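agent> Task received from the user: take the single chain below, predict its 3D structure, and emit structure tokens. No templates, no multimer pairing.
agent> Plan: (1) validate residues, (2) run structure prediction, (3) serialize to tokens, (4) report one or two observations.
agent> Step 1 OK, no nonstandard residues flagged.
tool_call: predict_structure(input=
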Amino acid sequence: MLNYAGGFREAADEVERLEAAGLDLIVVPEAYSFDAVSQLGFLAARTTRIGLASGILQLYTRTPSLTAMTAAGLDFVSDGRFTLGLGASGPQVIEGFHGVPYDLPMQRTREIVEICRMVWRRERVEHAGRAYTIPLPADQGTGLGKPLKLINHPVRERIPIVLASLGQKAVAQTAEIAEGWMPALYYPERADLVWGDALAAGAAKRDGSLGALDVFASPALYIGPGAEAVLPVVKEHIALYVGGMGARGKNFYSEVAALYGFGDDADRIQELYLSGRKEEAVAAVPDEFARGISLIGTPAEVAERLAAFRAAGVTTLAVMPLGRTADERLRLIEGLLQLAG
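)
tool_result: status=success, residues=341
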């Protein structure tokens, strides 16, 4: 997982080194930082083998056709190495930063996936759904719109789509329609309690041509003694999402924490965070929660955590190495690759 902060040319240099070390995938986040597409295009030019993924592009501010065009363009400049990570984000970002209504998130997701695949197959885009109607009906515009197909021939007509989802219905839909699933705060030993039924329900409706669901996880990574020194970094991440990503009564991450068994802790974290007492919110995160979603500890401990993620069905790790320098992060990735075999 590419870090938001720091100089981007330095980050690109680091990605080149990680590619040479054997890393298979780099995920570029977006949120409300610089857009991910510009960075992915730059990285495509600087690398030759490593996979590139958006993690994630939110689906409200780009039209479905533009999302499809962008993905096809990134797949083109990367010679078929792009994975389209999509998600609904949340009302705090969509309405607060972009100024558009946060409505029909599941329906929009389903329709965008359908439209993207239609564009990549170079079919004339004609879609009549609850969220999108393409072409625009005559009574809503000039009446001059007509069905068009993508001019270019995409490198692939089936670019992998990975959906970020947390709610039960959204996860079931992901397991039904997407190539991959990107949950947040993934705790392998407790994930099945939260999402097992939803994944099974979606899998029962899944088209066999999609193959098995690619399950992503994004744990923090630190291999070595003194894990207690880096645990606060993980707790800061948890506190931000459980405490600050949403409002009281409307926080998807807090709901996941509660389903994991940390309901009282989640309430306390959110209370403290939204009151401006962020350091206390971080301190309120249980060690068990922080360790459970991470790859932190001695090589033997990290190997044990790797086995737990694998046993839970995780197929792709987009780790966040907790190194202060590029050299430290490179050593952590090399250590992980060695442990993973």
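agent> Step 4: summary for the user.
The first helix runs from residue 8 to 21.
agent> Done.
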